[in-house]
Amino acid sequence: MNVSRTINNALRMVPAWSLYIMGVLPPVWLFYLGLTGGLGVDPIKAMEHEIGKLGLQVLVFGLAITPLRKLTGLNLMKFRRALGLIGFFYIALHLLVWLVLDVQILGQIWADIIKRPYITVGMAALIAMIPLAVTSNNWSIRKLGGASWKKLHKVVYGAVLLGGVHYTMVGKVWQSEALMYLAVITTLLAMRLPLAKWRLKAAKAP
Amino acid sequence: MSFKTDLKYSDVTPRADYLNRRQIMAGLGGVALGSIAGPGFAAGQYSTDATPNTLEDISSYNNFYEFGFGKEDPAEYAHTLTTDPWSVQVDGLVDKPGNYDLADLLTGMDIEERIYRFRCVEAWSMVIPWNGFQLSQLLEKVGVQPSAKYVYFETLVRPEEMPGQKGASLDWPYREGLRLDEAMNPLTLVATGIYGEDLPNQNGAPLRLVVPWKYGFKSIKSIVRISLMDSQPQATWNMQNPAEYGFYSNVNPTVSHPRWSQATERKIGGGLFARRQETLMFNGYGEQVANMYDGMDLTANF
Fold first, then answer.
1. CATH class as words, domain B9-293
2. Distance from CA of B104 to the nearest CA of A (A)
3. Would you call B61 and A41 a contact, using CB atoms and an 8 Å cutoff?
4. How far apart are CA A90 and CA A161, in angstroms?
């Protein structure tokens, strides 16, 4: 617990807005690499995959904040909104790269979304996150009221799960990396089930 | 992100020195084989005049699941593959079956340059200057019996050199097959080189199939078995997912794959703003191959 307290104290000096500045850097860097040959001979696919995976990583980390606090006392709560928005921003860029650089043809985009299950699932995950991104501000919390705002933002559980499913479906065979993401997501979600909460409490009791 | 080297293609041993070294080694070891890529001839009647991709494009972006799922994995890991000695088991309905040493198998084969379009089922493409010989020549050499209707191929299984085979992602060995008339078509090539050099390991050294009017996965790599059969042989991707990958797998822009529209493709090497181009029926080789499929429903037999 002492380590957590030290980290918590140190993090008090780090403002949440600094994450937004850091969050802009990876896509800019990827774009620079793509332009200068640093992403290999198919920079479009490389960029599409990297930014999608980065988005999923940030969102999974966002899901880990509550379990981390309960298990270790590490408190990253003030960064959670920024992580959610940055994750959403990366996934939106992932879609944009796919639309503009990869598929290019408008007529084909809609057909792809409807006909190809892995794209349908990924698209559903992104659409589910739009209302969450839009209401990620204090004004919306006041307007909606804390309870219903919280309820609305539970949608993120489903969205990230769909994101993990989307990643496993992209592969032509079962790929261990994608399955690991899905396992981590499932675990983080399972820890929020009533039974898991009760067991956590029991474990923490003296 | 994956490993990147600062070395450029121009940094490797100059070709003259490299050939020199091979001659010395051939002299020492009494090996007469030397380079199996053979001389590079001028583009013949079967070659496209499209601009070939660079050797870097061709040898750094590969699907060869024996070395991993990533496009860069084969280039990173395939150097461990031992391609000499190499032998090919020829069996089934042939007059001269046997376990052929690579040099014996290549004896008498006319190696020429063929610049072919290469279309992956994943909707990307390249133009590749292969060196190789017609499969028909090899089949004539081993003698095809009248009852044979199909040719079956297998890739090497050697998990200690092919890390991807340690996982059960695909049912190894990698298998592919062609109908006999497809195998005998003059376009069907057994490649031993690219750009006049021996095949890089990641491209399927020391010998691989090239069937330019079919999706790339039909062009099986690092072949160790060729078998003549009277019934349709197994094919790995068809076994893995028969709804997505048919036995024929002819390039066909009108038949959409469940994962990718096949109407267009992106030629590798065009950078971040590469435009898509239209995919051609039979990858543009209809004149040479369409008649083999007369009367066949190519949507049902995808």
1. alpha beta
2. 37
3. yes
4. 16
Beta strand B124-134 with B264-267 is parallel
Q: Do B240 and A173 touch (CB under 8 A)?
A: yes
Asked if B61's CB is within 8 angstroms of A104's CB, the reply is no
Both tokens of B135, joined, read 């499969």
Separation CA B190–CA B135 (nearest Å):
6
Average pLDDT estimate for A133-153: 95
Cβ within 8 Å, pair A50-B1? yes
Q: Which residues of chain A does B56 touch, with a Cβ-Cβ cutoff of 8 Å?
A: 41
For the stretch B250-270, what's the b/e string if a residue is b when 16 or more beta carbons lie within 10 angstroms of its beta carbon? bbbbebbbebbbbbbbbbbbe
Indicate the DSSP class of residue B51: P
| Residue keyed to tokens 């001659």 | B23
Q: B75 to chain A: nearest residue by CA?
A: A40
Q: Hey, is B39 helix, strand or coil?
A: coil
Asked if the C-beta of A111 comes within 8 angstroms of chain B's C-beta atoms, the answer is yes
| Prediction ipTM score | 0.85
pLDDT tens-digit series, residues B183-199:
999 999 999 999 999 99
- Say how far apart CA B200 and CA B192 lie, in whole Å: 9
CA A29 to chain B, closest CA, distance in angstroms equals 12
Q: H-helix or E-strand containing B91? A: strand B87-92
Closest by Cα among A163, A165, A167 to A155 = A163
Average pLDDT, chain B: 89
Which site among B4, B272, B277 would you substitute to test the A interface, given the most A Cβ atoms closer than 10 Å to its Cβ?
B272
Beta-carbon contacts of residue B96 (< 8 Å; ≥ 6 apart): B90, B141, B142, B143
Report in angstroms the alpha-carbon separations of B38 from B88, B107, B144, B187, B200: 19, 12, 26, 18, 14
Is residue A200 very low, low, confident or very high in pLDDT (cuts 50, 70, 90)?
low
